[in-house]
Amino acid sequence: MEQFPLRIGAAVVHKIEETTISIPPAKFFKSEAKVEEERATGRPGASGAPEESSGYYETAAAEEVCSKVRALEWMPPTGIDGDGNLQLAVQMFVIETPGGTRIAVDTCIGDDKSLGPNHEKFHMKQGPFLQNLHAAGCDPESIHFVLCTHLHFDHVGFNTVLRDGVWVPTFPNAKYLVAEKEWMSCLEEVKAKGDDGFAPFATILRESLQPIVDAGLQHLVSSDHVIVDEDSCKVRLVPTEGHTPGHVGVVIESNGTSAVITGDCIHHMAQLAYPQMGTWYDANSADAADTREALFDRVASEGAILIGTHFPVPSACFVERDAKGSGRRYRPRPCSCCAASSAAVAGA
């Protein structure tokens, strides 16, 4: 059942989908043992999954990752396909406060982006995302703030669109908010790697980030910045570092209800069961794992809603502790009762 538009107290969250990434578990997740090894040595692993020729995918460690993920009996059928591949949604959320402020969170991959051979499926792609945005009633001109939880390619792409050969802001009336720590880390990454690595960072900067700076729309903020503070609604950032050095989540609090939009603090529901399972694309998997543990504990204790940036349907859930043991920590609990009707949204 689709949950969106999702009501959080007096606020409403819209979801606009772009595409889905399908990937074998072992090519995305690194084992808990690998994360613990990195923690013990103090040396984060290189960003990017092992090469096919490395032989890693025939190892016991790779098989353990796949087995653990595929054995989760509570996993929604949308989370893993018939071949056992993870399904990762690429989507943007738009928060609409009772005062009428609209905040777009993470702008997906984008069209016409130069992503190179490591992301051939999405290189120079065209898609219906902007039409989907209009269909959701969230025209680009109506957005007041854009917040990127971090600056990876699948979270910044629709910051800009290509118009007459020039990259221009997609949301011309918005302030684009970036955590200052994340921005400085991004610049260091570009300086150190250029377009080398799992994503062409220099090209991403040129196509999706620098045009925002040049237009005077970028605003660097603290990692605990308050975006909106109304009588019945507050939207604020929370530091969720690890996947990237300056990663942030977005907290919505309204009329006694709260929710967290995760960004890449968590990529897939399997990490609810195994928070210490990192990804090959983390800047620091040990820090990311500890961040997840703390977030899940807080969300479970407070009864908050977890809105997963990469969760396919259902993209939002409550979190509860898993009493079954077997090393599992948490599990999702449905929150479909929070879905807002079309009439309710229209009257919000």
UniProtKB/TrEMBL annotation:
Domain Metallo-beta-lactamase as annotated: residue spans: 89-310
Q: Which Pfam families does this entry report, sorted A to Z?
A: Lactamase_B (PF00753)
Which CDD domains does this one have? metallo-hydrolase-like_MBL-fold (cd16277)
Classification via InterPro entries: MBL_superfamily_lactonases, Metallo-B-lactamas, RibonucZ/Hydroxyglut_hydro
| SUPFAM superfamilies linked to this entry | Metallo-hydrolase/oxidoreductase
Q: Where in the sequence does UniProt note compositional bias of the Basic and acidic residues kind?
A: 32-41
Q: Entry's SMART domains?
A: Lactamase_B
Stretches the record annotates as Disordered: 32-55
Q: Which UniProt keywords apply?
A: Hydrolase, Metal-binding, Zinc
Positions in coiled-coil regions = none
The family database entries (Gene3D superfamilies) matched by this protein are listed as: Ribonuclease Z/Hydroxyacylglutathione hydrolase-like
Q: Does the keyword Zinc apply?
A: yes
Q: In the record, what terms sit under GO molecular function?
A: hydrolase activity; metal ion binding
For whether the record's keyword set contains Hydrolase, the answer is: yes
Q: Which family does it belong to?
A: Belongs to the metallo-beta-lactamase superfamily.
The protein depicted here goes by the name Metallo-beta-lactamase domain-containing protein
